[in-house]
Design a protein that fits this description.
Elements (H helix, E strand, L loop, with lengths): L6 E2 L6 E2 L2 E2 L16 H5 L14 E12 L2 E9 L9 E7 L6 E7 L11 E9 L2 E8 L4 E6 L8 E3 L14 E12 L2 E10 L3 E9 L6 E8 L11 H4 L4 E8 L2 E8 L2 E10 L2 E9 L6 E8 L5 E7 L5 H7 L1 E2 L1 E2 L3 E5 L5 E5 L7 E8 L6 E5 L2 E9 L5 E8 L7 E6 L4 E5 L14 E4 L8 E8 L2 E6 L3 E6 L9 E7 L4 E10 L3 H4 L3
Parallel strand pairs: 4-22
Antiparallel strand pairs: 1-11, 2-3, 4-5, 5-6, 6-7, 8-9, 9-10, 10-11, 12-13, 13-14, 14-15, 16-17, 17-18, 18-19, 20-21, 21-23, 21-24, 24-25, 26-37, 27-36, 28-33, 28-37, 29-30, 29-36, 30-31, 31-32, 33-34, 34-35
Bound molecules: beta-D-fructofuranose.
């Protein structure tokens, strides 16, 4: 293990109410336009029960970990505004997976250092009781190490960074980033996202005894040329795999990689330090959900987090003073058919407030409950109908509305956003994926609405995340939707969700 003096002191400062202080002393909870927290709190598009920084830009979850009875979440963060530049590691902690307390920024770029242009994604491990972060410094992309000896309040970077200065010799890689580290007996293993031009994404595998000196072994796993998509850049084509996340699941292993606009999972066998995928799928149908990372939670569960991107213009994001949201915690397990089962963490039920129950078929297609901070559970018998589902965020006359529907003939679960907003500035393409109900199986939707965020879970086997930005303050109605036939809504349960925003602003 490295000694204390091998690490440079990086002292992050304190968190002021609603703001995060930077190591250089400047206060940062606001963007460069000088927006105040009250403006953000009043923003109708800003989620109220999802984890997000007090202001500014965030993207990937980084190194989620349970340590000393607390959940710790780090994330890609730009303290200078709602745009992606000069990445830092933001930090928050939680005792219950739902309410979060902001902590000082964990990592900031060091001028002249190997991370001078950004501290990109990575992971957190604990070695001999000392937490360590392994992350990517840019540019060029190299791997770095930092440790904390004061209970994760401040982090010291290794003076000898980078710990891995370049990809393996002679390899023409499309990228080299986002380490994921685990222990096997007395050795550490590190997987890095990479790819080979024209050939496909790869995960490179390294081994170490001390987290500092790493030997390259081989590809942990390799994509296939016939899986590449047409496109402009290696991430969208599948020639670059970002954010690998590799973990045990029952008697199998799972690998997540972020590429081709999605988080793609494989479940398979891990033998002799090679991973052989057997089953593949998407962790979430939509491109609104990305860069997922998981953690074991100490009770045998695997909790998955993802970055929920914006679906509006860069100018709108800058003007709002915030961009990016952390997904709700999702529990990952292995389904009987070998695929991933991903469901919302039960802890989210503690946010449920007033409950509304509607049994049987309503007289009209609308319900008397409205809102944009809700959990909705609906169960449909499809009967002879081809399409069934709900509309949400609907204005009283339907000028704005978003449809969440199952389409039997095309076997699709969809969010249709064409009429989701009257604003010209937002994404309105459909999002979804293939989903088939068995004969006589009911459609069970669990939907979390939180201002501009929608997270949908269908029959415990499909996740679909979306963003909508209704422009009207009265776009709050819920409705039933069915095309043709005899679809029947068996039951609808709606809970008004409590805000965690008060906690977002506590120190
Ligand atoms: C994924 C990603 C990572 C990178 C980080 C930079 O969204 O591109 O590959 O480390 O974001 O913020």
């Amino acid at each position: 293990m490295a000694s204390r003096r091998d690490f440079l002191t990086f002292s992050a400062a304190t968190v002021l109410a609603g703001r995060i202080a930077l190591p250089d002393g400047t206060s940062t909870g606001v963007d460069q336009s000088g927006d105040e927290p009250s403006k953000l709190a009043a923003d109708p598009q800003r989620p109220r029960y999802h984890l997000m920084p007090p202001a500014n830009w965030m993207n990937d979850p980084n190194g989620p970990i349970v340590w000393k009875g607390q959940y710790h979440m780090f994330y890609q963060y730009n303290p200078r505004g709602a745009f992606p530049e000069s990445m830092h590691w933001g930090h928050a902690a939680s005792a219950d997976l739902v309410h979060w307390k902001h902590l000082p920024i964990a990592l900031a770029p060091t001028p002249g250092g190997p991370d001078k242009d950004g501290c990109w994604s990575g992971c957190t491990v604990v070695e001999g009781g000392i937490p360590a972060i392994l992350y990517t410094g840019v540019f060029p992309q190299v791997q770095c190490l930092a440790r904390s000896e004061d209970g994760m309040r401040t982090w010291q970077k290794l003076a000898g960074n980078p710990i891995i200065a370049a990809p393996p010799q002679g390899m023409q890689t499309t990228g080299f980033r986002d380490p994921c580290v685990w222990r096997e007996e007395d050795e550490w293993f590190l997987a890095i996202g990479s790819g080979i031009e024209g050939q496909g994404g790869v995960v490179l595998l390294y081994r170490s005894r001390d987290l500092i000196h790493w030997d390259y072994l081989h590809f942990l796993c390799k994509g296939r040329r016939d899986e590449l998509l047409p496109g402009k850049d290696p991430v969208s084509t599948g020639e670059m795999w970002e954010c690998p996340d590799f973990f045990p699941l029952s008697d199998k292993r799972a690998l997540l990689v972020s590429t081709q606009g999605a988080v793609i999972y494989s479940v398979g066998a891990y033998e002799n330090h090679y991973f052989r995928p057997e089953v593949q799928g998407k962790a979430d149908f939509s491109d609104s959900y990305y860069a997922a990372r998981s953690m074991p939670d100490g009770t045998g569960r695997r909790i998955l987090w993802g970055w929920i991107r914006e679906g509006r213009s860069e100018a709108a994001q800058r003007a709002a003073g915030w961009a990016g949201v952390m997904s709700l915690p999702r529990v990952v397990s292995l389904a009987a058919d070998g695929r991933l089962r991903i469901t919302p963490a039960p802890e989210l039920e503690t946010l449920r407030g007033k409950h509304h129950h509607f049994g049987g078929q309503p007289a009209r297609n609308e319900f008397s409950i409205r809102g944009d901070s809700l959990e909705i559970q609906a169960e449909f018998e499809l009967g002879t109908s081809d399409v069934a589902g709900l509309t949400v965020r609907s204005s009283p006359r339907g000028e704005e509305h978003t449809s969440i529907t199952y389409h039997r003939t095309s076997a699709q679960l969809l969010v249709e956003r064409e009429h989701s907003s009257l604003s010209p500035d937002v994404d309105r393409g459909p999002q979804g994926g293939s989903f088939t109900l068995a004969e006589n199986e009911t459609l069970k939707l669990r939907i979390f609405l939180d201002a501009s965020v929608i997270e949908i879970f269908a029959n415990d086997r499909a996740c679909l995340t979306s963003r909508v930005y209704p422009s009207r303050p009265d776009s709050l109605d819920i409705g039933r939707l069915a095309k043709g036939g005899s679809a029947r809504l068996k039951a609808l349960d709606v809970w008004e969700m409590r805000s965690i925003s008060a906690d977002r602003l506590t120190t």
